[in-house]
Design brief:
It is a single chain. By secondary structure, the protein is an alpha/beta fold. It folds into 2 domains: 168 residues, Rossmann fold (3-Layer(aba) Sandwich), CATH 3.40.50; 122 residues, 3-Layer(aba) Sandwich (Rossmann fold), CATH 3.40.50. It has 11 helices and 11 strands. Helix 1 runs parallel beside helix 9. The longest helix is centred in the last third of the chain and has 20 residues. The radius of gyration is 21 Å and the shape is globular. The protein starts with 13 loop residues before the first strand and ends in a 12-residue tail after the last helix.
């Protein structure tokens, strides 16, 4: 697969920054830009053939299935990804109704890895890890095909989103983990040429109830912007505290952290929040395939998969399954063995589609980390 910034990456890992558009605010009757409200499963169905997908009728249950698995952490103090599993199951249901994998039904198995990765086991078994969010073990796995740069990649580009807004005095309000304490040193090495000064690095201890202290601390340090590599519950508390204090700070966090509803609830203060992500938000208005994605996930009836509560990370389950099916469909194969599937993935090169919800900038992850402790040597990228 290669290393960040190296020439052997099949897909460029990019991140885009987004601001909530004024025109996307909620209406009095609870409508939303993406259709539907929390708990509402009446999202209008989409004629998928008009948005570039296919509809070949129901899959044939008599044929051998395409077996797709997903390992992730359903819940932990710093990571909750059960909605990704729910999204993959809902995606399979939807694609099976439209022909599955070249007529074969898709069977999904999801596994809670309890924050204990088993990437090495999958590598030994020859199972392609496709459309994943990469972590450190994936960087040396030749059979790993990341969808994006994962949580660490998102954290690395958060300062860039602020730099693009002209902010160079930056603070970090982050998860309270020993590994996260090393981020500031890495940031300083990456962003020194941009004239960035990281004026404060503040961990959020477990059980915190007073989040205003963090806002006051970064303001006292002279920060103009704040990166927020936190989980969703902590991140929204930080933003609400800043809103209550009338802060002028600009915040950079992740599309995978906050759903649309949280931003709407912030009202005008949402204009001070930049969201970084490798794919468009679920509520992006004029990306045709996103309409099919939203309808497929909403049809599950799961509250967390309804448009206003849908974060970007669960959408990756649908996008990843779609990308895999496109590869198999273009090959016309019915051989879903590990070796043949891996060969087809290796020979492919799907291109990403940029989003359009007030995109403010685009960052190339490879270029950003080139020459840093996380990237390739400067003379090779």
């Amino acid at each position: 697969m290669g290393t960040p910034g190296g020439r052997s990456w099949r897909w460029q890992l990019r991140s885009r920054s987004w601001l909530l558009a004024v025109g996307c605010s909620s209406s009095d009757d609870g409508g939303s830009a993406g259709g539907g409200t929390p708990g509402d499963t009446d999202v209008a169905p989409v004629d998928v053939t008009t948005v570039g997908l296919w509809d070949d009728g129901p899959c044939d249950e008599s044929l051998d299935p395409l077996e797709v698995g997903q390992q992730l952490t359903f819940a932990s103090p710093v990571l909750t990804s059960e909605d990704n599993a729910l999204a993959l199951e809902a995606s399979a249901v939807a694609f099976n109704a439209r022909g599955g994998a070249n007529g074969h039904c898709i069977e999904v198995t999801t596994c809670d890895e309890h924050a204990d990765q088993n990437a090495a086991v999958l590598e030994e078994a020859g199972i392609a890890r496709f459309a994943i969010s990469s972590g450190t073990p994936d960087l040396s796995d030749p059979n790993s095909y990341p969808f994006d740069a994962g949580g660490i990649g998102t954290a690395m580009v958060m300062p860039q989103a602020l730099v693009d807004e002209g902010i160079t005095d930056i603070a970090s309000i982050r998860v309270d983990l020993p590994s996260a304490s090393a981020l500031i040193d890495i940031y300083e090495g990456i962003y020194a040429e941009d004239g960035v000064e990281f004026v404060a690095d503040i961990p959020v201890p477990a059980g915190t109830t007073d989040y205003s202290q963090f806002i006051l601390a970064v303001e006292d340090a002279g920060a103009e912007g704040v990166i927020v590599p936190l989980g969703g519950q902590e991140a929204i508390q930080v933003l609400r505290a800043a809103q209550q204090l009338g802060s002028d700070l600009l915040f950079s966090t992740s599309l995978g952290t906050l759903p649309y509803q949280d931003l709407v609830d912030l009202g005008d203060f949402a204009d001070q929040v930049i969201l970084n992500g490798s794919s468009a938000p679920a509520t992006a208005g004029d990306i045709p395939a996103m309409e099919a994605l939203v309808a497929d996930l909403a049809a599950s009836g799961e509250e967390v998969l309804q448009p206003r509560l849908l974060k970007s990370t669960p959408t990756h389950s649908w996008i990843g399954l779609y990308a895999l099916l496109v590869i198999l469909r273009e090959a016309g194969t019915e051989d879903f063995s590990r070796a043949d599937t891996t060969d087809l993935i290796q020979a492919s090169g799907p291109n990403g589609t940029p989003g359009n919800l007030v995109q403010t900038s685009e960052i190339d992850f490879n270029d950003l980390l080139c020459g840093s402790t996380l990237g390739a040597p400067a003379d090779t990228c």
